[in-house]
């Protein structure tokens, strides 16, 4: 098993249909030890049974908009495990009104919220966990093609994901000397809880099925398998990359 005894901290599991769940499931299959974050009691009730099902070692609270809570989470993880090998960031948020209509109508508060939760949180987590990431470790985050091209109604989230992707490259440079790799997976659209907030999301799914080279949409399992590769020693020379897992859609011009 290519992740045997590697310790992975997962931020962003919402339910068993989320991309973070697919990643966690693949990690477990390949031998990793898992720990999960949650924000608030409502999410805790969802994460607890997921952790039990996947054999997670522990769960812990963390609001990624709070530097204090992020620092506390890193301290707690260090107490439990000492060090970690993998950090997964699968966190994003924008208000529903900012995921419809015109991008130019994005509010200032909406813009700052999307940037804070979806992009800066990766930087904050990397800073807090840097000291306990083992050499050879891997940081993985999730992005989407709307960072590169205009996708109807993706709006401010596309701008936040563009910032996230740029952060991946700068973080890869920062962490390279200690042999920690930082990469992003650009997953094709998947019907998750977060995606439900995007207006006309079904139209996007249908468009992929019609135009992607593989003529279908990607699954959380397929994204999870790619994350397993990036978390493993098989990708030891891969860093600062945006890896597309979207059935080839990014390669077509229509």
Provide a descriptive summary of the structure in words.
This protein has helices spanning 19-29, 40-53, 67-81, 108-129, 155-175, 201-211, 220-231, and strands at 7-11, 33-38, 58-61, 84-89, 133-143, 181-187, 242-245. With 254 residues, it is α/β, with parallel strands linked by helices. A seven-stranded parallel beta sheet has the order 3-2-1-4-5-6-7, with helices on both faces. β5 (133-143), α5 (155-175) and β6 (181-187) form a beta-alpha-beta unit. α1 (19-29) packs across α7. The chain starts with 6 loop residues before the first strand and ends in a 9-residue tail after the last strand.
What's this model, at a glance?
The chain is an alpha/beta fold and 254 residues long.
Features:
globular, 17% strand, 254 residues
> Proportion of β residues?
15-25%
**Spatial order of the strands forming the largest sheet:** 3-2-1-4-5-6-7
Query: How far is the N terminus from the C terminus?
Result: 40 Å
Structural class: alpha/beta
Topology:
Elements: E1 7-11, H1 19-29, E2 33-38, H2 40-53, E3 58-61, H3 67-81, E4 84-89, H4 108-129, E5 133-143, H5 155-175, E6 181-187, H6 201-211, H7 220-231, E7 242-245
Parallel strand pairs: 1-2, 1-4, 2-3, 4-5, 5-6, 6-7
Helix pairs in contact: 1-7, 3-4, 4-5
